[in-house]
Amino acid sequence: MRLISGIQPSGNITLGNYLGAIKNFVKLQDREDITDFLVFVADMHAITVPQDKQALRQNIKSLVATYLACGLNPEKVHIFIQSEVPAHAQLGWILQCNGYIGELERMTQFKDKKEKQVAGVSVGLLTYPSLMAGDILLYDSDAVPVGQDQKQHLELTRTLAERFNNKYGDTFVVPEPFIAEAGAKVMSLTEPTKKMSKSDPNPKAYIALLDDINIVKKKIRSAVTDSDGKIAYDTVNKPGISNLLTILSCVTNTSIKDLVEKYKDSNYQQFKDDVANAVALELEPIQKRYNELINSPKLDEVLNEGRDYANYLANKKIAKVYNKVGLGRKTK
Ligand code: TYM
């Protein structure tokens, strides 16, 4: 089974990205049934909204160091930068030509992001899910580990794959989303009915993996909760406490049910202290490894291998796709 996933280097990687995506990659890389695993830095996606050139370069590098610091093993996972594999853009274009404006306009993430763009909405923001579909279909990926917010894009990927297969003959594997039960939707600490997002203008709303540990603890201790004083899992009436339970459950590998039992007689302050300490314990070694890696030649070594392997697979596939569509001259 082949897996692929990517993250945008568009700012601070958050605890949401970690629990919804990276931590699962780390678990999955050891599974025997996974023969091939590719994880990339989705830098072409990041430019759908304005980016500062220097900051983007830094964020790309930082995400690679973060992948390794969190435990991705380059012996098991091929790590690469999307823009270093031109076939992503090539297939993205072909899929754009097979997608409909209406279906892209229906994407919730497009609708949300569109609202936030003051300086104009780029065409790329609308067509971005066809680039994402290209990222996945290029490698005949069987499954895509992502958080809940990417489910709709995965459904579109499946639609585009099926449409293409019907039109041009069997070409793409139709991939399955792979969404973990816990941590697939970590919520904002200040507005727990909203998803935790790295682009949130309020830094108290999210925990960045590289936040100073004391700040991490402070943010958790001041997370918005309710005033009923009971620790219970109820995402409708107690979204703040439920979110902290989810976070604690993920970082301690304990079920929410067991945690609710454990904290049934505790007050919010004790509970928040425990969540703060557990998250700190998880992040400290990651930060230590990150600092060792960020300026080491290891990053380039890993990225060179990943780029070459991804290009090898992607170029074979894009040649087949060109032939199916009738582009250029026929190649063997
Ligand atoms: P991105 O960069 O927004 O997020 C990266 C991953 O983190 C997950 N995630 C969350 N999980 C739980 N709680 C949250 N609050 C939270 N916020 C983000 C996302 O679901 C995602 O798995 N379009 C993608 C990147 C991408 C991609 C791909 C992914 C481009 N091509 C191909 C998979 C396959 C994105 O913007 O993710």
Summarize this entry quickly.
53% of the residues lie in helices and 7% in strands. With 332 residues, the protein is mainly alpha-helical.
- Gap between N and C termini, in Å? 27 Å
List the bound ligands.
tryptophanyl-5'AMP
- Return the CATH class of the largest domain: Alpha Beta
- In the predicted model, the low-confidence regions spanning at least 5 consecutive residues are none
How is the main sheet built? 3 strands, parallel
Key terms for this structure?
332 residues, mainly alpha, Tyrosyl-Transfer RNA Synthetase, 3-stranded parallel β-sheet, 5 strands, 53% helix, binds tryptophanyl-5'AMP
Topology, element by element:
Blueprint: E1 2-7, H1 15-28, E2 36-41, H2 43-46, H3 53-69, E3 78-81, H4 87-96, H5 101-105, H6 108-116, H7 123-137, E4 143-145, H8 151-168, E5 176-178, H9 213-221, H10 239-252, H11 256-262, H12 268-293, H13 298-325
Parallel strand pairs: 1-2, 2-3, 4-5
Helix pairs in contact: 3-12, 4-7, 4-13, 7-8, 9-12, 10-12
Commentary on this structure:
The structure is a single chain. By secondary structure, the protein is mainly alpha-helical. Strands 1-2-3 form a 3-stranded parallel sheet. Strands 4-5 form a two-stranded parallel ribbon. 40% of the residues are buried. Helix 4 (87-96) runs parallel beside helix 13 (298-325) and helix 10 (239-252) crosses helix 12. The longest helix is centred in the C-terminal third of the chain and has 28 residues, at 298-325. The chain is globular, with a radius of gyration of 21 Å. Strand 4 (143-145), helix 8 (151-168) and strand 5 (176-178) form a beta-alpha-beta unit. The mean pLDDT is 96. The protein is built from 13 helices and 5 strands. It has 2 domains: 2-179 and 297-325, Rossmann fold (3-Layer(aba) Sandwich); 203-292, Tyrosyl-Transfer RNA Synthetase (Orthogonal Bundle), CATH 1.10.240. It binds tryptophanyl-5'AMP. Tryptophanyl-5'AMP binds next to strand 1, helix 1 and helix 7.
